[in-house]
Amino acid sequence: MKRLLIPLIIFLLMVSGCSNAASTNSEKTSEGSKKLNIVTTFYPMYYFAKKVAGDSANVELLIPNGVEPHDWEPTAKDMAKIQDADVFIYNSQYFELWAEKVLKSIDTSKLKVVEASSGIKLMDALESADEEKNTASKDPHVWLSPVLAQQEVNTIAKALEQVAPKNKDQFQKNAEALNSELADLDRLYKETIDKAKKKEFVTQHAAFGYLAKQYGLTQIPIAGLSPDVEPTLGKLAELTELTKKKNIKVVYFEAMTSSKVAETLAKEIGAKTEVLSPLEGLTKEEQQQGLDYMGVMKKNLDSLKLSIMD
Predict the structure, then answer these.
(1) CA–CA distances in Å: residue 147 to residues 144, 189, 215
(2) Where in the chain is the domain with CATH 3.40.50.1980?
């Protein structure tokens, strides 16, 4: 968080000089194009907002696809984008750890701030993994449950309705269409996992607690909520014994971080490694394949089948 101090200082210096221009630009947007200016943090928030807003808004993604969100912090330019927006959408104070400090440093009187996971009972981090003490105390990865994702969509839709009530019918219609797709995805997961022979799966990053809980699976994470934290030798030895006992054949890693730890465990137990995306951003390969949230979630299910159907 120390890296945030310099951008904050630069931003505060920028605000006084840019306030008049920002005001003018805002007036042109509201009186001219009539489109909302929505700034979202990372890919799932962008996807949900884009689907709900339709052609009634310009939706921008702050954290570029391919960049690990856990390591990202906003620049002064990013903070200016948030300041100039009509709506700012983030997932949770437990994921975008910088958001609270940034929002305190800017004028939010004309900014609609949306915490998409608001109203969802978050699991304690310890429910997902033996979590490190220096990271979030709650597990924020609710977007990986198609059921909880619907709640986030509804929260976003209600917020947009408050900002642009004239477009309420469109927002509601778009949210219903997206939630119908998410309900179909939920059914696909449930019907597939109901046939599973095994219930445990091993992940490098404890991002799949909500998905596991939703469908009666057990996530066995190598590390906690922070994907770049490596387990101790003692923890790795414990996991090696456990996964051998459970005859685990697949160890999952995520494409935007190093697979070294997953490969180490896989080698110890004679398993293979596969990608299971936490959807914290689209990889270059996923973008080239034209995949979106739905596509990656279906790909995740196919990947999970390698563990639970064996």
Answers:
(1) 9, 11, 10
(2) 2-186, 196-308
Question: Cα separation of 138 and 136, whole Å?
Answer: 5
CATH 3.40.50.300 fits 2-186, yes or no: no
pLDDT in tens, 151-172: 999 999 999 999 999 999 999 9
Of residues 131 and 173, the one with the higher pLDDT is: 173
The hierarchical CATH code for the domain 196-308 is 3.40.50.1980
**Angle between helix 5-28 and 76-84 (nearest 10):** 30
How far is Cα 225 from Cα 230, in angstroms, rounded to an integer?
A: 11
CA–CA dist 146, 26 (Å, integer): 35
Which helix (H) or strand (E) is 210 found in, with range?
Answer: helix 209-214
At 32, list the tokens: 């001219």
Sheet-wide strand order for 250-253 = 218-221, 200-203, 250-253, 272-275
pLDDT tens sequence across 223-250: 777 666 678 888 889 999 999 999 999 9
Q: In the chain, what is the straight-line distance between the N-terminal and C-terminal CA atoms, in Å?
A: 43
